[in-house]
Amino acid sequence: MAKKIVIPKPTKVPNNWCWVELGKLTFIKSGFPFDSKRFTKTKNQYEKTRPLIRIRDVVNGATETYTDEVCPEEYVIKKGEILIGMDGDFNVGKWQSEDALLNQRVCCIQSCSSLYLNDFLFYYLPGPLKKINEATPSVTVKHLSTKTLAITPVPVPPLPEQQRIVDRIESLFAKLDEAKQKAQDALDSFEPRKAAILHKAFTGELLGKHAVNITSLDKIATCIRIGPFGSVLHKEDYVLGGIPVINPKHIVQQRIIPEENVTIPINKAEELPSYILQKNDIILGRRGDMGRSAPVTEEEAGWLCGTGSMIIRLKPGYSAKFYSQFIASQAAVSYLEENSVGSTMKNLNEKIVCSLPIPDFTVDEQLEIVRLLDDLLAKEQQAKDTAQKVLEQIDLIKKAVLARAFRGELGTNDPNEESAAEWLKQMV
Q1: Distances from the Cα of 392 to the Cα of 51, 58, 174, 377, 403, angstroms
Q2: How does residue 69 score in pLDDT terms, banded at 50, 70 and 90?
Q3: Residues 304, 328: contact at Cβ < 8 Å?
Q4: Which string of DSSP letters, residue by residue, matches 147-159?
Q5: Burial 96-108 (b: 16+ CB within 10 A, else e)
Q6: Other CB atoms closer than 10 Å to residue 288's CB: what's the count?
Q7: Residues 196-224 pLDDT 10s
Q8: 383 vs 116, 370, 392, CA distance in Å?
Q9: All domains of the chain, ordered by start, with CATH?
Q10: Angle CA 395–399–402, to nearest 5
């Protein structure tokens, strides 16, 4: 037996407000199954076309048009009308452009009285629809019916209070959106700032140097070796809780993150001594994303280089932490991408990696650059984390503003205004 749809119950509101079912205040218009053969992404000046609103367009706007010489006019919607996607997340949007056509599984909400504002309803509806969505059972895609929409209760304040609430929401949201854009700009600039810092590090600019000796990676390494081939290491060799095998997916942001089910027994690892990682090695992913690398610390020493990875064993006096960061830099990544082989997936071989041009710094210079990088990148990461938290807080603040708005708690309500129930008696 199908589960009953749960409709959010009315909450306490000011005395001059009331609750009414949505279907008694609005016209709910369903879309039409337009012929997909007449969809087009471009307008033809010789054909009559209109934007076509599909479910994916409810929030972001239409991306296709429809040739509508014989279009049923009852499925035309106008600017300012509310849209609801009837499948999936039950998204709410407001059409902001020219007259458009309403496709199937999208509905349009139109207030049937000038005493109930579309804008007020637009800000209110996402809350209850999210709750309905969460309570809607589904095996694949969730579906919303116009019947469920029609019996969903909505708050009705006096008309002046509706406008005050809309004005207050939009004023607060404008300030929040401004703060959000600044936080997003800071977040978006993180990678370019990080790349600029790394560029200064590897060109010697952080140390005040005007020139740096360039050599090839093989000149500072004692060994550059591809991990064991599949004929040597098989999936059936994997056990739980053994020696971790490090493949490219285990190399994340200059760190090695193993999986407990991608390990091999100690005796199997002992059969592959050439692929055992040592402290101050660099492990490099040789397939897929170029430059994915990490230094091997004391903690990872003894783990195994996987089939899709490579070991770079440096000579004494060269820091794996320093040169791993260089291999992940844009300059090194560009070189590896340009010289990689393979038509479907980029691959690196020993020859390519050996020839990678690298800056040759002294031990003291490497240590100083690593110290400076740790400090600078830590500050950049802190700024990034702060920006991310701001974005999360802004979304929470918006939800809190809306929750208070529709409980009459924004400080805008005038209890002396005529109750909305009075004019509803004539309408409902």
Answers
A1: 34, 24, 16, 22, 17
A2: low
A3: no
A4: HHHHT-EEEE--H
A5: eeeebbbbebbbb
A6: 13
A7: 999 999 999 999 988 899 999 999 999 99
A8: 44, 20, 14
A9: 18-156 (3.90.220.20), 213-360 (3.90.220.20)
A10: 140
